[in-house]
Write a structure and sequence with these properties.
There is one protein chain. The chain is 32% helix and 21% strand. By secondary structure, the chain is α/β, with parallel strands linked by helices. The chain has three domains: 160 residues, Membrane-bound Lytic Murein Transglycosylase D, Chain A; 226 residues, Rossmann fold (3-Layer(aba) Sandwich); 129 residues, Rossmann fold, CATH 3.40.50.2300. The strands form four sheets. Strands 8-7-10-9-11-12-13-21-20-19 form a ten-stranded mixed sheet, sandwiched between helices. Helix 1 runs antiparallel to helix 6, helix 7 packs across helix 16 and helix 8 packs parallel to helix 9. The longest helix is centred in the middle third of the chain and has 19 residues. The radius of gyration is 29 Å and the shape is elongated. The two termini are 44 Å apart. 42% of the residues are buried.
């Protein structure tokens, strides 16, 4: 069930094959100071469960899981467990008293108190709403105060332990009642540079999706809150990247924060230390929330990445901010860079003399000059001063004609494109245009095909690539869904920035100006603004021909 995965994300605990019985747990008197905190050190004994240990020390199960990565997958008998001393007795004041809890084989028998939801109960016992519903079919009629329900219990300690030299990738969710980490073993061993702490801030709207999960569990069709679908796809793509990075030897502690697109909530989480010790922050998705986090990132020298915001305001006065969506100016430069390699062609730049078009022309010429060699010649032609008949005479009958049309005037363009399309019957013409043309309603798709219109776009997925096809298959298998554009974006962002974190750490954020990479969807090439952070100057050149969109060939 993808909705259940959404609510608990990667750290949902699937508790099965457990045997829970009420064994007496003798509490330890041994203590130790670790990383500035005092812990009781408990040695796991035969037939003790996480539940029985947590109950003996009166701490939450999630507390033990947080401080002892890997225990939810089972630990070797005799392994020492850290239990935070300041947390001892934290469950004494819970609404659920000892009288409300009994043990029944593989389950806890739980008497439902007032003002308790399935979501809260599932979090408290490290299980899922689906697991509880499966164990209690009568809950289809709702949760009733005073009723007794069965809750699957954590599994008994096994013989599994980490192999020497292996590390774990940890994933953590904050902004919820408890913090839980799920650990997986790193098959590649030692990280490239220790362990990276990455904070991912997404508008997941978990509380709304929790209520949708209850409806789904009661027989209604499964659905995910519409405004969180983008975040979910981005997160899922990010997770697949972490799988890949783990195999390459990178160790990542991933902390996911549900922003709900509420600046006040994010401010509170930041004040409570939710981003403490982060080496990289990705998100939030929206400007008003991003600004709150960016202040903290700058004050604490943490690079922060915006995967969705277009404006330059997020980069102003913040030399550690990265915006991955290229501007229209950047895409014009990419077009010039692409065409700087044109040989044996007849090149013309067409415009109508407007100020905006002059700006596009200037950026295009900047791109031509970035090639590091003498660029191809592209003389400009002001269509406002000369008619289309004189333009026709400038076209070559034997060479390819590259026409760079730098205008967003839909009225004038409609007639011009129709006329040029007629010329294409006996003249080889390729038109290069701004990305804004894709939104023009009066330009016919046949004209895009006739003129093989090329343009720079922020993102493009080439489904003919073997790597893309492999990604799609992995995504389907893991999440039972089709990857959207945001899934590819999440994958690319994680791969690009985590692989380059060591360079940023050793040389500063300016290191990224020396890095150019192309992912499954995005191209990356960074330029630092004089008064702030880094903008992505790379885009993808695409070609409309054969009535479909494809990557342009060099």
């Amino acid at each position: 069930m993808r909705l259940i995965f959404f609510i608990f994300l990667a750290f949902t605990l699937h508790l099965q094959n457990g045997v829970a019985q009420d064994f007496t747990v003798e509490k330890s008197d041994s203590t130790a100071k670790i990383e500035g905190e005092f812990y009781v050190i408990h040695i796991a004994q035969p037939r003790q469960t996480l539940f029985s240990i947590a109950k003996a020390y009166e701490v939450k199960l999630s507390r033990i899981a947080f401080d002892n990565p890997g225990v939810l997958d089972g630990v070797k008998l005799g392994q020492p467990l850290r239990i935070l001393k300041s947390a001892l007795g934290e469950t004494k004041e819970q609404e659920t008293t000892d009288e409300a809890i009994q043990l029944d084989g593989d389950y806890v028998l739980y008497t439902v108190p007032k003002q308790k939801t399935l979501y809260a109960i599932s979090k408290e016992y490290n299980t899922t709403i689906g697991e509880i519903m499966d164990a209690n079919p009568e809950l289809a009629d709702g949760l009733k105060v005073g009723s007794t329900i069965r809750i699957p219990t954590p599994k008994i300690f096994g013989d599994k332990q980490l192999v020497e030299g292996e590390k774990e990738t940890k994933m953590e969710m904050v902004g919820l009642p408890d913090i839980i980490r799920k650990t997986t073993q790193n098959e590649a061993g030692v990280s490239k540079s220790g362990t990276y702490n990455v904070s991912l801030l997404l508008p997941l709207h978990l509380s709304i999706n929790d209520s949708l999960a209850l409806k789904s569990a009661s027989g209604q069709p499964e659905q995910v809150y519409e405004k969180s679908e983008i975040a979910l796809q981005f997160y899922e793509g990010f997770l697949l990247a972490l799988d890949t990075l783990k195999k390459l030897g990178y160790n990542v502690n991933l902390k996911v924060i549900d922003t709900e697109n509420k600046s006040w909530k994010v401010s509170g989480l930041v004040e409570k230390g939710a981003l403490q010790n982060a080496n990289l922050i990705v998100g939030p998705f929206y400007s008003k929330v991003f600004t709150e986090v960016a202040k903290y990132a700058l004050e604490n020298s943490i690079p922060i990445v915006s995967p969705t915001i277009k404006g330059n305001e997020i980069l102003t006065n913040n030399p550690l901010a990265f915006r991955i969506i290229p501007t229209e100016d950047a895409m014009m430069m990419e077009m010039g860079r692409y065409l700087s390699r044109s040989d044996s062609t007849n090149n013309l730049v067409l415009h109508y003399g407007a100020g905006e078009e002059q700006s596009l022309l200037w950026r295009f010429r900047q791109g031509l000059e970035t090639a590091g060699k003498t660029p191809a010649k592209f003389p400009s032609y002001d269509m406002a001063k000369s008619g289309t008949d004189s333009l026709r005479l400038k076209l070559s009958r034997t060479k390819r004609n590259n026409l760079v049309i730098l205008s967003n005037n839909q009225v004038k363009l409609a007639g011009l494109i129709r006329k040029i399309s007629n010329w294409a019957e006996d003249t080889k013409i390729v038109v290069y245009a701004p990305n804004s043309w894709t939104g023009f309603k009066n330009l016919e798709i046949d004209h895009f095909d006739d003129l093989r219109i090329h343009m720079a776009v922020p993102f493009f997925v080439d489904y003919e690539r073997v790597e893309t096809q492999e990604f799609v298959l992995k995504f389907r298998n893991k999440f039972n869904a089709e990857p959207s554009s945001f899934a590819f974006r999440g994958y690319d962002v994680a791969m690009h920035f985590i692989r380059n974190l060591n360079g940023i750490k050793s040389e500063g954020a300016v290191y990224m100006e020396s890095v150019e990479e192309t992912g499954l969807q995005s191209a990356f090439g960074w330029k630092k603004l004089p008064d702030g952070g880094f903008e992505n100057m790379r885009a993808r050149m695409v070609d409309y021909s054969g009535l479909k969109l494809k990557l342009a060939k060099d």
